[in-house]
Amino acid sequence: MTAAKAFQKLGSLAVPLTLVVVLLAIAAVRSPNLFTPSGIGNGILVAAPLFFATMALTPIVMSGRGAVDLSIGPLIGFLNVTLITWLSARGITHPVLFIGWALFAGALWQVLLALIVIYVRIAPIIVSLSGYLVLSGVNLMIMSRPGGVAPDWLMNWGAASAAQVISPIFLLALVAFVAWVAITRTGFHRQLRMVGSDERMAYTAGINVDLVRLIAFAIGGMFAGLAALSYTALIASGDPTQGSTYTLQAVTALVLGGASLSGGRGGAIGAALGAVNMFLINYLLGTFNFGSLSGYVTQMAFGAILACSLLVNLFTSPSASKA
């Protein structure tokens, strides 16, 4: 098999995988410390919330109708501040309750959005934008400024992840990855791809389109819960505003990972590659001295990457190939 055929066989993963290799090569020159055990552990800890956020968007986008959840960032922030303010501050720190609340509240929010999309028939982008604004305000009502303290076990997750490669956050990401692989082995995944690719054909084939879309949103909400847990482990406190920054990054990572915004295509490998690419780009930009402009340069880079990724997806999609 020639290199060209092997590259073509990778499909939508070819571009993000190539970019990861290129960025790792540049990182090896610019900052070799990234490849030490503590460097890799820190990288996993920082990239984990973005990976889970991208995973949260994946089943939602796959369900079609252009359902990109713009509220994913504020949702992570909402779960973070409620974990700190409603649970940790009141002495409720048991891992089962903490993790259970994050998964339940994340799924509940996404199911609410799905019900509005399905039964009120408002465009998903409008619903998620409204959710973004609502949750941004609610987060500041719950916690007006960064503060609070995460439970000891969650802070230990962050500390352990910063010192070693195999850490609780790494294992959490592994569990999420295995869970997605298990989902892809079910009939639900086939139905989800069919609904996202052609909703009318899926309906005529006897698929309960509304139920598939509802489950997809619920699964996305649970991944958002994992994003909030890893984010809380990362900052070891609550922050009502920083979670919102994950919206643009997660959407960019999703597109960069080869998912189709029109639905029907996406997966855990693409989400992981997209998140790793975003982390490496952010990390490498940090090795340059842009002074007070560093934040603007990062935002410009993310915006440019999103635009380029959309163009690459447009010209490499199966429909484009057939044209």
Helix/strand layout:
Blueprint: H1 3-9, H2 14-30, H3 37-62, H4 72-87, H5 95-120, H6 124-142, H7 152-161, H8 168-184, H9 187-197, H10 199-204, H11 209-235, H12 246-256, H13 268-286, H14 294-316, H15 318-322
Helix pairs in contact: 2-13, 3-8, 3-11, 3-12, 3-13, 4-5, 4-6, 4-11, 4-12, 5-6, 5-11, 7-11, 9-11, 12-13, 12-14, 13-14
Which key terms come to mind for this protein?
mainly alpha, globular, 323 residues
* Strand-residue proportion: under 5%
Radius of gyration: 19 Å
Note the main sheet.
none
* Series of H and E elements: HHHHHHHHHHHHHHH
By DSSP, the count of extended strands is: 0
Spatial separation of the terminal alpha carbons: 26 Å
Question: What is the residue-averaged pLDDT?
Answer: 88
Number of helices: 15
Low confidence ranges:
none
Helix content: over 70%
The coarse silhouette is: globular
Detailed description of the structure:
The chain is mostly helical and 323 residues long. The protein is built from 15 helices and no strands. The protein has helices spanning 3-9, 14-30, 37-62, 72-87, 95-120, 124-142, 152-161, 168-184, 187-197, 199-204, 209-235, 246-256, 268-286, 294-316, 318-322. Helix 12 (246-256) packs parallel to helix 14 (294-316). 45% of the residues are buried.
Summarize the structure.
By secondary structure, this protein is an all-alpha fold. The protein has helices at about 5-10, 15-30, 35-60, 70-85, 95-120, 125-140, 150-160, 170-185, 185-195, 200-205, 210-235, 245-255, 270-285, 295-315, 320.
